[in-house]
Amino acid sequence: MLENTSTLAAYRIPVTAGSRTVEVPLLTPGQRIGVVLDRPTLGPVSWLVPESLGGYTPVTATVVPGGVRYRSANCWALTSRGAAAIFRDAVGRITGGEQLSPASVSCEPGEREVPAVVPPAEVSPYCALGAE
Questions:
Q1: 3-class secondary structure for 28-79?
Q2: pTM, rounded to two decimals
Q3: pLDDT value for 7
């Protein structure tokens, strides 16, 4: 899990483990997000004042029977960069995870349920501000 403990928004965060890299598009102050990498290290991060994000709020996700329900309070469509599904045991320890493809994640305004075969998990959508 990655957590932004600063008062600034972290933008385009490269996270690497071995030869594998994922980019977390945006992490607002206080936000936590899953990363499906073993012993990840962070690359250089760009920091933005939250006011520069134009009212952006993080997209949330909930695993439901037959899929994942995504919720976005944003007024504009964001660009999906996929998601991390983090699996936990009965006491809350992380036991594994799965990277979900961008095509299987909704970053559209409102609420949308996307069919998927995902065991009970904590899903962290990676939604980017633009097509960068």
A1: CCCCEECCCCCCCEECCCEEECHHHHCCCCCCEEEEECCEEEEEECCCCCCE
A2: 0.88
A3: 97
